[in-house]
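Two proteins were folded this term; both appear here.
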Amino acid sequence: MDAKLSHFVREKGNQSGQLEWVLPVSYHFSLLDDYLKVSLSEELYAFAGNFDFNGTERVGYQTLVATHKIKLSSDLLKPYQYGTHTIEWSAEYARQNYLGDGLVTYNTLDRSLRRDFLSREPFDDRVTLALSQYWHNNTQSLSAKQRISQEYYPDRDKKWGDLRHELMLEYGNWRISNLLEYSFRYQGLSEMSNKLQYHTKQFAVDMEHFWRKDVELHKVLTNEIALHAHYQYNDTLKLFGSMTYDLEEKHSKKWRSGFRYDKGCWAVELSYEHDTKPILGATGGASLSSDAFRVKVSLVPFGESEISQ
């Protein structure tokens, strides 16, 4: 059983004190000479909390949810002369039962309270289908991974959820990956990500293009390019930097640079960061820029503390 007690405090805006706990139970077995694997699971989730809504209203929320799942899966592995191919598939049925009036109360909560403080949201009965395959050559210098997943909602008018496709190719120090999400409901792409990475023991650079769209409103939410790099000067000192450029607004969105000194049991990180956010001004579009100097201290195994100015 996992239990967590949290208290969120802000100078302005929503605040919350809450208790949540999870009790999971699962049972696994195989059939057909291990070719078919079966997993049965039950999970009981409880939440009790109070929200201070912008300092003007206090709202209480309690819920008890039972989640039932059954999953069928299998994996096949075949060696070849130059490498090994693995294929996996799974089909999972999941259902939620809200005990009491928790679902009714959830639907009356303000959306900002749900976004800020609730880690779980209700879902309809669903079937998740997934297919993955992997290839590794014998020298481990080349590998490929592909994964496709699809959700199906039997009780909805629009039964098919988003189709998600992931592809990754790795050769030596290079890695290329792609992610696509397609909405059958709105018949269009909802998310796309392309990443190119080069990593060695001393040096690493990542370049990524990320695009996301609200297909219901036909509005692009994110369209940006990000570049990240670091250089391991020696065993203890690492230099790093990053930059993000907004292709929709055509301006630099964020950049950051600094260094980290790591002695294993403790570490200090110093960085300088510039951030530009678009805002709606009195005369139209505008932007708000902020600069911050950050100091982060890490003590193993006690955690991290960060100060920014």
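Next, the second protein.
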Amino acid sequence: MINELSPVKIPMLSVTPSGVCMYHEWHGPRRSRMQFDECGEFLPASQQAGRIRPASNHNNGIMSEKAKKRIENALKWMLYLSPSKKIYHRDEKRWVKFRLCFVTLTLSASQQHTDKEIKSKLLYQFLDEMRAAYNVTHYVWRAEKQSNGNIHFHLVVNRFIPHMDLRKRWNRIIEKLGYVSRYQQKMTESIHDFADYYNMFIGQGSYQQLMRRYNYGRATRWTNPNTVDIHSIVKVHNLAAYLCKYMAKSVKDDYERIEDIPEALKVAGKLWGLSQSLSQLKTVSTPITTAISEEIETIYQWAKDKVFSKDYFTWIRISFRQLIKLKCDNIMRHVFDEMAKYNEKSLTFT
């Protein structure tokens, strides 16, 4: 039993899809940090002198470096929780190889409502329906502004959802704020024949593609605009890097100074979000046993140029796939046990 007045420093290992971290964790209070009131009673942390209230967590409409790392970490966890599988595509009548679905949601007309209102009334309803209708258990979303000032959303989910199903559902939701009706009115008044449509959307597709879209628009009386884009990620070599490029990019990457960023390109309120599963699954921590210590030595030998050391921790960049190749079974057993809480099927690393 640990004596409450005798703190013990325990060596710990923390594991993420990006690497492993060695550090020490204190069990029991540290005397140097214990403070007492005038009667000799221990003061709770919130009442101790010298404690600094954390700064307000406002993002000012710009993705922070910390947020980018959180998104990248969540996407990597999501990849390991989503083994490759084949799904029958009923519309195309064929089997397709599938792992994740990468979607972009846009508005069909000029934005008339605040960013916060669109997220609270439209995006969050869409996410609720994805969970209920398609059993979407893992997802990451982020908000971004288009060059025209309209907000749009990138979304990565762990379920295969037919494009037309997503499109009809999103259009039904955005019509709550009248965006489909405004699109329909604009198209009805502006488009009299294919030449008008072609001139409006020239450069946004081939002649045949524009003709198909025009015919579909006329057939549906412009009530089902193309507000959903599903990105093909089947043949992407480095899927993690590809997703991070879109999901974790920041508008400040295009400007030398933050002050130069136009206000119209800044998103008001929350910039990104995770499913509850990915929010909880951040790191896997475990005490360093003798067996784990031996595996850490193996990692050191392999990753001599990937070690980053500071006073209180040592970080080694290494992937789960490499940990498996190095036969770090004791480390990976803890990772498997943690992922099993959030995964429906057996884990694969492909």
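The first strand starts at residue 8 and ends at 16. The radius of gyration is 25 Å. These notes refer to the second protein only.
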